[in-house]
Each structure stands twice: as C-alpha cells, then as structure tokens.
Specification:
44% of the residues lie in helices and 13% in strands. It has a four-stranded parallel sheet with strand order 3-4-5-6, with helices on one face. A two-stranded antiparallel sheet has the order 1-2.
Length: 170
C-alpha cells in the first residue's frame, strides 16, 4: 500500500508507514505522534522510493533541528571523487542530509553517484539542471529555458532518487 499512497495520505487514513516508524524511532517520539503531524502537514518524511537504501528523515514541528551539508561541482572543479569524499566526510561529521548543488561536469552522474554512495537524505536544485541542460544540450541562453525544461529537471532528479528538492520561485 505504501507505494500507491503518499506519506500524508497514509497518515490521514490513520496508517503508520514503515518510514514513519523508522523516522519516529530516530526522533525518539511515538510513531503515532509523527503520523499525526504528517497528517496535519506540520511534519514531512523525506524519503524517495528510488533511493532504495535511503534512511527516512522527519522534518517539521517539534522535531530536532537537522544539519544539511552543501556539496556539488562547478565548472572549475568537476571531480566526482571529490564530491563523494565530501559526502562521506559530511555524514561522518553528523550531517542529516546532503544538498547536491552541482552545476559543472557530468551533473547527472555526480548526483547518481552521491545517491548511490550514501543512505543520508539527498536534496537537489532541479532548476540548476534545467539551466545547465538548456545551455549545454539545447545550446540556448539560460533565460530561454521553459517551464517544461524545469519540470523535466524535477522529474529527472526524483527518478534518480533525490529525497527532497529546492524550488526557486519568484
């Protein structure tokens, strides 16, 4: 059932998913309390089904503050090995999540390698993907990216297993 319903839908039906149980245990709170917060929308469980070895991470009201580590390549430094080392060091130092901000090099492969490397919660910025793809694949200026380009970036990141995304809106 957990593959057909979202965490919120399950919580609103009074169900406690495996992810809610795991996240509640990590937070040292009752699963019922976390389920209720998810149902009300005051907490979320970050966990993408495609990140098969990812650990569910609860974020929201009454939960401990999370530590996020920003990593990612640029046009000047495109080393996958360096990003994987950054990921290992960040997790070893206690980071709850990693935000891949890669904008240079083989960004798809870098993101996929980071997801494969760690069970930590992984975030990304699909808008960066859309901008890079518009310039490098479509050979157009970044300002010419379309809404469809942005949504394609979101889908690509979620399909890869990213657990949460940052959406820049204005």
């Amino acid at each position: 059932m957990s593959q057909e319903l979202t965490q919120m839908e399950m919580a609103r039906k009074g169900l406690i998913s495996k992810e809610v149980k795991e996240a509640a245990l990590a937070e040292c709170i009752a699963p019922e309390l976390l389920r209720d917060r998810v149902a009300r929308g005051t907490a979320v469980i970050c966990r993408n089904r495609c990140h098969t070895h990812g650990i569910p991470l609860a974020v929201g009201q009454g939960l401990r503050t999370k530590v996020n580590a920003n990593i990612g390549t640029s046009a000047d430094d495109q080393s996958i090995d360096k990003e994987l080392e950054k990921a290992r060091v960040a997790v070893a130092a206690g980071a709850d999540s990693l935000m891949d901000l890669s904008t240079g090099g083989p960004i798809n492969e870098i993101r996929q390698a980071i997801i494969k490397e760690t069970s930590a919660c992984i975030g990304s910025v699909p808008l960066y993907q859309a901008a890079v793809d518009t310039v490098t694949l479509q050979h157009k200026p970044m300002v010419d990216m379309t809404v469809d380009d942005i949504f394609a970036g979101v889908v690509k990141h979620l399909d890869d297993g990213v657990d949460f995304i940052t959406v820049h809106c204005g």
